[in-house]
Amino acid sequence: MSKWLEKQKKPVLPLYFAALVWLVGALLLPPYRLSNLLILAGLSLAAYAAGSRFCPTRVIKTEVPYATGSEDVDAMLNGIAANLDALHALNAQIPDTQLSAAMTRMETAGRSIAAVVADAPEKAREIDRFARYYLPEVVKLMRAYAELEKNGVKGENAAQIQRELRQNAETTAAAFENQLDALYSAAALDISTDIAVLDGILKSQNLTK
C-alpha cells in the first residue's frame, strides 16, 4: 500500500539575502560598534523576511511503498513486494495453466498478507517465516522451472523437477492462503465475542424470538 510522505524544504535564497546585508553593511558601517551590529542584525532579519515572502517554503511529496513507522516492517514489506513482483513476472513466462493458476493464488494471497501487515504492523512477527523463507524459496523454485521451460530442457531429471513443482504449487498456494487466514484469527475471535455479547443483551431485553 503506497503512501505519500510530505517534507518541507526551506529555500536558501533568504539566507543569502541576510548574509549579503552583513557583507555590504560591514563595508559601510564599522561592525565593532554595538549600535551598528544592532542595525545590521535588524536589516538582515528584514532581508530574510522579505526573501521568505517571495520564496516560500516548498512541500515535497514523495511516494513510498510502505510507511508503517517501523523500518524493519517497511523493509519486510518491501521485500515481500519485490518477491511478489518477481513471481508475477515468472508467471507470465510459464505456459502451464494449472501451475500458472496456483501462482496467481500465491500472488493474490501474498499481496493481501502485505496489505494486512501494512495496516497492522504488530502482525509482522506472524509472517516472519513467510517473508524470509517461504516466499523467496517459491520464487527461487519457479525461476528454476521457468528456466527449464525457456531452454527447452528435456529428459528424465527435467521431467521429474517439473512434475514435483506442479504438485507442490497447489499445496504452496493453499499454505499462503492459510497464512492470510491466520492473520484474521484474533479479529474473528473478537467479532464472535461481540456477536455473543450482543445476542445476550438482545435476549435479556426480550428483543429476539
Tell me what you see in this structure.
The chain has two domains: 3-63, no CATH class; 71-189, Up-down Bundle (de novo design (two linked rop proteins)). The longest helix is centred in the C-terminal third of the chain and has 28 residues, at 156-183. 73% of the residues lie in helices and 7% in strands. It is built from seven helices and two strands, in the order βααβααααα. The mean pLDDT is 80. The protein has 209 residues and is mainly α.
Topology:
Blueprint: E1 3-9, H1 13-28, H2 34-54, E2 58-64, H3 71-91, H4 97-119, H5 128-151, H6 156-183, H7 185-204
Antiparallel strand pairs: 1-2
List keywords for this structure.
de novo design (two linked rop proteins); 2 domains; mainly alpha; two-stranded antiparallel ribbon; single chain; 209 residues; 7 helices
Q: What is the 3D shape?
A: elongated
Instruction: Work out the number of β strands.
Output: 2
How far the N terminus sits from the C terminus, by CA atoms, comes to: 45 Å
Total domains: 2
Strand proportion, as a percent range, falls in 5-15%
Tally of DSSP helical segments = 7
- In round numbers, the mean pLDDT is 80
Rg is 31 Å
Strand order across the largest sheet:
1-2
Order of helices and strands: EHHEHHHHH
CATH uppermost class of the largest domain: Mainly Alpha
Q: State the CATH topology of the largest domain.
A: de novo design (two linked rop proteins)
* Helicity, as a percent range: over 70%
Largest sheet: 2 strands, antiparallel
CATH architecture of the largest domain: Up-down Bundle
Name the structural class: mainly alpha
